[in-house]
Amino acid sequence: MKAELVKRPRRLRLNQNIRDMVRETSLNVKDLIYPYFVVEGENVKEEIEAMPKVFHFSIDKLVKDVKETYELGIPAILLFGIPSSKDEVGSQAYASSGIVQRAVRAIKEAIPSMIVITDVCLCEYTSHGHCGVVESGYVDNDKTLELIAKTALSHAKAGADMVAPSDMMDGRVGCIRQILDSEGYVTVPIMAYSAKYASGFYGPFREAAQSAPQFGDRRSYQMDPANSDEALREIALDIEEGADIVMVKPALAYLDIIRRAKDSFKVPLATYNVSGEYSMIKAAALKGWLDEKVVVLESLTSMKRAGADMIITYFAKDAAKWLTTR
């Protein structure tokens, strides 16, 4: 016997009950937000090829699925809309009869307690696929702000519980806060995509949202993946302009940014476990190369450990089932 081995960390790993008692990070169903894609039509539930088990829903099918999501204990959803027609200025994004606006009304009527968060951007609605007004091949920041604010207001009028601007235009949080307050929606929070990187992990989403740019890329407004300090500046600006929740997107390749943000700002912090992160795990799991449940829960726990208070993830429904049965 080696008497000098006084410190044995393995004592606290002896069995599951002890491991649970000393666990430093807890992943809970209430931490999860499930994204949905809503399309025009009726009786539509079509699987997205690049994202197995994720679907395009028409409003009637969407409401039924959201009910099931709510019954799993997931408290919130994030809604993306795909319109039947697009134009240069994304007018369906802020139309009172737009696809998202009608979907919000239907969901809130059927499941009033479900928190409905709406993505506020123009990329799904513009014929060119960019997140704002394009002039001479360039996305005009200030001309885009008015349309982003109008979109957020139309979502609030439809009954959205929270709006989430993802366009990365300078000053958009302040413009949204101003118009919401002036129209009497002072209690509607803003979840800002504050540190949104120009990432290669968005590929499957662009198929799902039909929002790939028709020319160029989004690097003139989304952040350089090499930058960390810039993320803190962006988050600070959004908080100053009135953001209630800030977000880091993507998640897995940016855990260091999540940690820096959490250490620097004492505000609620979200992260988005994006489509590419989802599809990579799904593809490997379908091949039998990894244990999907183990890897998903490990990945989501890493985001909580890094400092995220809430996680937007396409794994939310599966994770909710796993978390309540283990």
Automatic annotation (TrEMBL):
Alphabetic keyword roster: Heme biosynthesis, Lyase, Magnesium, Metal-binding, Porphyrin biosynthesis, Zinc
Listed EC numbers: 4.2.1.24
Lyase is among the record's keywords: yes
GO biological process: protoporphyrinogen IX biosynthetic process
Cofactors named for this entry: Zn(2+)
Entries under CDD domains matching the protein: ALAD_PBGS (cd00384)
Active site: K196 (schiff-base intermediate with substrate), K249 (schiff-base intermediate with substrate)
Binding sites annotated in the UniProt record for 5-aminolevulinate 1: R206, R218
Pfam families from the UniProt entry: ALAD
Cited InterPro entries: ALAD, ALAD_AS, Aldolase_TIM
Residues the entry annotates as binding Mg(2+): E234
Residues holding 5-aminolevulinate 2: S275, Y314
Enzyme class, UniProt record, top EC level: lyase
Chain residues that bind Zn(2+): C121, C123, C131
Gene Ontology annotations for the cellular component aspect, listed alphabetically: cytosol
Pathway(s) it belongs to: Porphyrin-containing compound metabolism; protoporphyrin-IX biosynthesis; coproporphyrinogen-III from 5-aminolevulinate: step 1/4
Reaction equation(s) it catalyzes: 2 5-aminolevulinate = porphobilinogen + 2 H2O + H(+)
Record GO terms (molecular function): porphobilinogen synthase activity; zinc ion binding
SMART domains per UniProt: ALAD
Binding partners and assembly: Homooctamer.
Family: Belongs to the ALAD family.
Function in brief: Catalyzes an early step in the biosynthesis of tetrapyrroles. Binds two molecules of 5-aminolevulinate per subunit, each at a distinct site, and catalyzes their condensation to form porphobilinogen.
Stated name of the protein: Delta-aminolevulinic acid dehydratase
Naturally occurring in which organism (per UniProt): Tepidanaerobacter acetatoxydans (strain DSM 21804 / JCM 16047 / Re1)
